[in-house]
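Researcher: Good morning. I'm working through a list of sequences from a screen, and I'd like to move beyond sequence-only analysis. For each chain I'm collecting a predicted structure so we can compare shapes side by side. This is the next one on the list. No need for commentary yet; just the structure.
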Amino acid sequence: MKRKALILLFILGGIIMAFSINGQMQKAAEEKRNREYEVSLVKALKNSYEGITEIKLSNPRYTMKPRIWSCSVVLSFADQEEISYGINHDLGDTVNYGGVMKGGTDIQINQQWESLHRHEGVTSTKIEVTYSNGEREIQ
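Model: Good morning. C-alpha coordinates for this chain:
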Protein backbone atom coordinates (compact mmCIF):
# COMPACT_ATOMS: atom_id res chain seq x y z
CA MET A 1 0.00 0.00 0.00
CA LYS A 2 2.83 2.40 0.86
CA ARG A 3 4.49 1.59 -2.45
CA LYS A 4 1.32 2.47 -4.43
CA ALA A 5 0.96 5.72 -2.52
CA LEU A 6 4.60 6.58 -3.18
CA ILE A 7 4.23 5.81 -6.92
CA LEU A 8 1.08 7.93 -7.06
CA LEU A 9 2.88 10.76 -5.28
CA PHE A 10 5.76 10.64 -7.79
CA ILE A 11 3.34 10.64 -10.74
CA LEU A 12 1.41 13.57 -9.29
CA GLY A 13 4.64 15.47 -8.63
CA GLY A 14 5.79 14.84 -12.20
CA ILE A 15 2.53 16.15 -13.61
CA ILE A 16 2.72 19.30 -11.49
CA MET A 17 6.34 19.85 -12.51
CA ALA A 18 5.48 19.41 -16.22
CA PHE A 19 2.72 22.04 -15.98
CA SER A 20 5.07 24.41 -14.15
CA ILE A 21 7.80 24.04 -16.79
CA ASN A 22 5.25 24.53 -19.57
CA GLY A 23 3.99 27.74 -17.91
CA GLN A 24 7.55 29.06 -17.56
CA MET A 25 8.28 28.29 -21.22
CA GLN A 26 5.12 30.10 -22.34
CA LYS A 27 6.02 33.14 -20.22
CA ALA A 28 9.56 33.22 -21.66
CA ALA A 29 8.16 32.99 -25.21
CA GLU A 30 5.72 35.81 -24.47
CA GLU A 31 8.49 38.02 -23.07
CA LYS A 32 10.67 37.32 -26.13
CA ARG A 33 7.80 38.13 -28.51
CA ASN A 34 7.00 41.37 -26.64
CA ARG A 35 10.63 42.52 -26.79
CA GLU A 36 10.80 41.76 -30.51
CA TYR A 37 7.65 43.81 -31.15
CA GLU A 38 8.74 46.62 -28.82
CA VAL A 39 12.17 47.01 -30.49
CA SER A 40 10.46 47.01 -33.89
CA LEU A 41 7.91 49.60 -32.72
CA VAL A 42 10.62 51.90 -31.34
CA LYS A 43 12.41 51.83 -34.70
CA ALA A 44 9.14 52.55 -36.53
CA LEU A 45 8.29 55.45 -34.21
CA LYS A 46 11.78 56.93 -34.67
CA ASN A 47 11.16 56.68 -38.44
CA SER A 48 7.80 58.44 -38.02
CA TYR A 49 8.38 61.37 -35.66
CA GLU A 50 11.08 64.00 -35.32
CA GLY A 51 12.53 65.17 -32.01
CA ILE A 52 11.70 62.13 -29.86
CA THR A 53 13.76 62.12 -26.67
CA GLU A 54 12.13 59.20 -24.85
CA ILE A 55 9.68 56.36 -25.48
CA LYS A 56 7.93 54.46 -22.69
CA LEU A 57 6.07 51.24 -23.52
CA SER A 58 3.58 49.45 -21.28
CA ASN A 59 0.65 47.03 -21.29
CA PRO A 60 1.66 44.82 -24.23
CA ARG A 61 -1.13 42.62 -25.53
CA TYR A 62 -1.10 39.96 -28.21
CA THR A 63 -4.32 38.36 -29.38
CA MET A 64 -4.27 35.20 -31.46
CA LYS A 65 -7.39 36.26 -33.32
CA PRO A 66 -6.85 38.35 -35.42
CA ARG A 67 -3.17 38.25 -34.41
CA ILE A 68 -2.76 41.80 -33.21
CA TRP A 69 0.02 43.08 -30.98
CA SER A 70 -0.61 46.36 -29.20
CA CYS A 71 0.66 48.40 -26.28
CA SER A 72 0.45 51.78 -24.60
CA VAL A 73 3.11 54.29 -25.60
CA VAL A 74 4.28 57.61 -24.19
CA LEU A 75 6.34 59.75 -26.57
CA SER A 76 8.40 62.61 -25.12
CA PHE A 77 9.70 65.24 -27.53
CA ALA A 78 12.52 67.78 -27.40
CA ASP A 79 9.97 70.63 -27.21
CA GLN A 80 8.79 69.20 -23.84
CA GLU A 81 5.57 67.80 -25.32
CA GLU A 82 4.46 64.37 -24.13
CA ILE A 83 1.76 62.31 -25.84
CA SER A 84 0.22 59.07 -24.54
CA TYR A 85 -1.82 56.70 -26.66
CA GLY A 86 -2.49 53.08 -27.55
CA ILE A 87 -0.97 51.61 -30.69
CA ASN A 88 -1.12 48.44 -32.79
CA HIS A 89 2.06 47.24 -34.47
CA ASP A 90 3.13 44.65 -37.01
CA LEU A 91 6.75 43.49 -37.26
CA GLY A 92 6.80 44.49 -40.93
CA ASP A 93 5.97 48.15 -40.19
CA THR A 94 8.91 50.52 -40.76
CA VAL A 95 6.80 53.57 -39.82
CA ASN A 96 3.77 53.77 -37.57
CA TYR A 97 1.40 56.75 -37.49
CA GLY A 98 -1.58 54.84 -36.08
CA GLY A 99 -3.01 54.78 -32.62
CA VAL A 100 -5.91 55.48 -30.33
CA MET A 101 -5.82 58.48 -28.01
CA LYS A 102 -7.01 57.67 -24.51
CA GLY A 103 -9.21 59.84 -22.37
CA GLY A 104 -9.89 63.52 -22.62
CA THR A 105 -12.41 65.50 -24.59
CA ASP A 106 -12.68 65.42 -28.37
CA ILE A 107 -10.85 68.76 -28.46
CA GLN A 108 -7.96 67.39 -26.35
CA ILE A 109 -7.75 64.26 -28.49
CA ASN A 110 -7.68 66.38 -31.68
CA GLN A 111 -4.93 68.55 -30.16
CA GLN A 112 -2.85 65.46 -29.43
CA TRP A 113 -3.25 64.23 -33.01
CA GLU A 114 -2.31 67.66 -34.35
CA SER A 115 0.78 67.61 -32.14
CA LEU A 116 1.80 64.21 -33.48
CA HIS A 117 1.34 65.46 -37.06
CA ARG A 118 3.54 68.50 -36.29
CA HIS A 119 6.29 66.10 -35.17
CA GLU A 120 6.21 63.95 -38.31
CA GLY A 121 9.72 63.26 -39.55
CA VAL A 122 12.65 61.12 -38.42
CA THR A 123 14.53 60.96 -35.13
CA SER A 124 18.10 59.91 -35.92
CA THR A 125 19.58 60.55 -32.47
CA LYS A 126 19.81 58.03 -29.65
CA ILE A 127 16.84 58.08 -27.28
CA GLU A 128 15.96 56.54 -23.96
CA VAL A 129 13.51 53.63 -24.15
CA THR A 130 11.65 52.07 -21.23
CA TYR A 131 10.28 48.67 -22.17
CA SER A 132 7.12 47.15 -20.73
CA ASN A 133 9.13 44.95 -18.36
CA GLY A 134 10.76 48.06 -16.84
CA GLU A 135 14.14 47.62 -18.51
CA ARG A 136 15.69 50.82 -19.85
CA GLU A 137 17.96 51.16 -22.84
CA ILE A 138 19.46 53.80 -25.11
CA GLN A 139 18.51 53.04 -28.69
